[in-house]
């Protein structure tokens, strides 16, 4: 293989061998781990010892060249320096196993393990960590139409984020950019969200606030953390918009004296309607339900019940909705049939007219006698 160039070959071989023997003195594993901030990390450092070597001390240095662990490898190990975040797992012969309990952003860089050996002197190895973050969020959210709501996303390594961007994806798949902001103070909000949506400017805890939630805000929102050098990390939070019911009750007295009472509620999701008729035998048959889906996503539910003549007092319509802590109850007697209102209004007008006539008569026409 070498042929006439064999002296060069030997030279090369010599280089390789010396390089191996120099670096194979101490080997740390893993060599270049990528770890999420907050996670533990194990390092194992191995020294190739030769007969006659005595290890006086083992030291571990963090990327800031601070000693985080130093011990004499006796049985048991005699520890002289120990960072509370570092634990010695095992030490036997030329092996030192440690655990970094939680990796912090400042742990990024190269860790060194150093063996102080007699008579060889120092032997050291190094391993370089890359620390990354993780996107976290509190799950999907439900908001009430007309009320404010806040969606939030967390990135555990804000130091590496240079821009945060929020996108909206509707159920039909339409994507729009809600807004973004950068580390350097630049901020932009999409036209359709201006004056309605605000973004806080935190690089690690991003919050999108909608002042008054509308039906069309129901969608999934993607928060994107643009980081360097790890690239874009994102998460999706979906918003459901609920509409609270505003129950409507009415009744008519049929010619037979039977009362037909209606209770209806428009909401999202649909409400359940029950009746409290205040006693036995007051209804003629069970209530009849009908439901109608509106184009805006709400549903109108109507319940109609027939009541015996005179059984009007104490009747209540009860409306249950998943966004309400307790059901709404609306008494039937609080509403007057339309005819009663008309009667009251017309009698008031009549009285006023009569008064006016009397007055006019007194003042002008009838004063002569
Ligand atoms: C690190 O080492 C400890 C003790 O040897 C072990 O219990 C743990 O599972 C290891 N962790 C990882 C992430 O390998
Ligand atoms: C959030 O909602 C979306 C769409 O409704 C669904 O696909 C996803 O599984 C939900 N995520 C969680 C954590 O509930
Ligand atoms: C009650 O609802 C039914 C069906 O929606 C309707 O036909 C009826 O006129 C309503 N009655 C009253 C008193 O509102
Ligand atoms: C209800 O009506 C049934 C028969 O229609 C009668 O047996 C029962 O006693 C009545 N209950 C009350 C509380 O009036
Ligand atoms: C109304 O919409 C719901 C789902 O939102 C659906 O299950 C139901 O069948 C629809 N009802 C009508 C009458 O279209």
Automatic annotation (TrEMBL):
<dbReference type="InterPro" id="IPR036179">
    <property type="entry name" value="Ig-like_dom_sf"/>
</dbReference>
<keyword id="KW-1133">Transmembrane helix</keyword>
<dbReference type="InterPro" id="IPR013162">
    <property type="entry name" value="CD80_C2-set"/>
</dbReference>
<dbReference type="GO" id="GO:0098632">
    <property type="term" value="F:cell-cell adhesion mediator activity"/>
</dbReference>
<dbReference type="GO" id="GO:0030424">
    <property type="term" value="C:axon"/>
</dbReference>
<feature type="signal peptide">
    <location>
        <begin position="1"/>
        <end position="25"/>
    </location>
</feature>
<dbReference type="Pfam" id="PF08205">
    <property type="entry name" value="C2-set_2"/>
</dbReference>
<dbReference type="GO" id="GO:0150079">
    <property type="term" value="P:negative regulation of neuroinflammatory response"/>
</dbReference>
<dbReference type="GO" id="GO:0034113">
    <property type="term" value="P:heterotypic cell-cell adhesion"/>
</dbReference>
<feature type="transmembrane region" description="Helical">
    <location>
        <begin position="340"/>
        <end position="365"/>
    </location>
</feature>
<keyword id="KW-0812">Transmembrane</keyword>
<dbReference type="InterPro" id="IPR007110">
    <property type="entry name" value="Ig-like_dom"/>
</dbReference>
<dbReference type="InterPro" id="IPR013783">
    <property type="entry name" value="Ig-like_fold"/>
</dbReference>
<dbReference type="InterPro" id="IPR047164">
    <property type="entry name" value="OX2G-like"/>
</dbReference>
<dbReference type="InterPro" id="IPR003599">
    <property type="entry name" value="Ig_sub"/>
</dbReference>
<feature type="domain" description="Ig-like">
    <location>
        <begin position="119"/>
        <end position="240"/>
    </location>
</feature>
<keyword id="KW-0325">Glycoprotein</keyword>
<dbReference type="Pfam" id="PF07686">
    <property type="entry name" value="V-set"/>
</dbReference>
<dbReference type="InterPro" id="IPR013106">
    <property type="entry name" value="Ig_V-set"/>
</dbReference>
<keyword id="KW-0393">Immunoglobulin domain</keyword>
<keyword id="KW-1015">Disulfide bond</keyword>
<protein>
    <submittedName>
        <fullName>Zgc:172122</fullName>
    </submittedName>
</protein>
<feature type="domain" description="Ig-like">
    <location>
        <begin position="247"/>
        <end position="329"/>
    </location>
</feature>
<feature type="domain" description="Ig-like">
    <location>
        <begin position="24"/>
        <end position="113"/>
    </location>
</feature>
<keyword id="KW-0472">Membrane</keyword>
<dbReference type="GO" id="GO:0016020">
    <property type="term" value="C:membrane"/>
</dbReference>
<dbReference type="GO" id="GO:0043025">
    <property type="term" value="C:neuronal cell body"/>
</dbReference>
<dbReference type="GO" id="GO:0009986">
    <property type="term" value="C:cell surface"/>
</dbReference>
<keyword id="KW-0732">Signal</keyword>
């Amino acid at each position: 293989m070498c042929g006439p160039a064999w002296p060069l070959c030997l030279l090369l071989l010599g280089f390789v061998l010396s390089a191996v023997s120099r670096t194979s003195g101490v080997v740390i594993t893993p060599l270049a781990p990528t770890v999420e901030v907050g996670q533990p990390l194990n390092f194992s450092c191995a020294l190739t010892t030769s007969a006659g070597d005595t290890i006086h001390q083992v030291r571990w240095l963090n990327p800031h060249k601070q000693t985080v662990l130093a011990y004499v490898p006796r049985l048991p190990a005699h520890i002289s320096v120990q960072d509370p975040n570092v634990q010695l797992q095992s030490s036997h012969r030329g092996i030192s196993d440690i655990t970094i309990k939680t990796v912090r952003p400042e742990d990024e860089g190269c860790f060194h393990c150093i063996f102080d050996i007699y008579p060889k002197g120092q032997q050291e190895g190094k391993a370089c960590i890359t620390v990354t973050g993780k996107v976290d969020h509190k799950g999907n959210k439900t908001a009430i139409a007309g009320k404010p709501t806040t969606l939030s996303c967390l990135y555990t390594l804000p130091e590496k984020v240079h821009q945060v961007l929020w996108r909206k994806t509707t159920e039909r798949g339409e994507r729009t950019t809600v807004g973004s902001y950068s580390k350097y103070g630049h901020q932009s909000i999409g036209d359709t969200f201006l004056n309605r949506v605000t973004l806080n400017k935190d690089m690690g805890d991003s919050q999108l606030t909608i002042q008054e939630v509308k039906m069309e805000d129901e969608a999934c929102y993607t928060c994107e953390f643009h980081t360097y050098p790890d690239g874009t990390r994102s998460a999706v939070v979906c918003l459901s918009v609920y509409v609270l019911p505003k129950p409507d009750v009415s009744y008519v007295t049929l010619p037979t004296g039977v009362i037909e009472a209606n209770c209806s509620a428009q909401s999202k999701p649909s409400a359940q309607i029950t009746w409290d008729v205040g006693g036995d035998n007051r209804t003629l048959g069970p209530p009849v339900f009908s439901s109608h889906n509106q184009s805006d996503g709400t549903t109108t539910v109507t319940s109609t019940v027939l009541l015996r003549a005179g059984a009007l007092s104490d009747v209540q319509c009860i409306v249950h909705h998943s966004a309400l802590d307790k059901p709404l109850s609306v008494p039937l007697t609080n509403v007057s049939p339309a005819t009663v209102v008309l009667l009251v209004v017309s009698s008031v007008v009549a009285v006023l007219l009569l008064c006016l006539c009397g007055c006019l008569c007194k003042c002008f026409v009838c004063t002569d006698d």
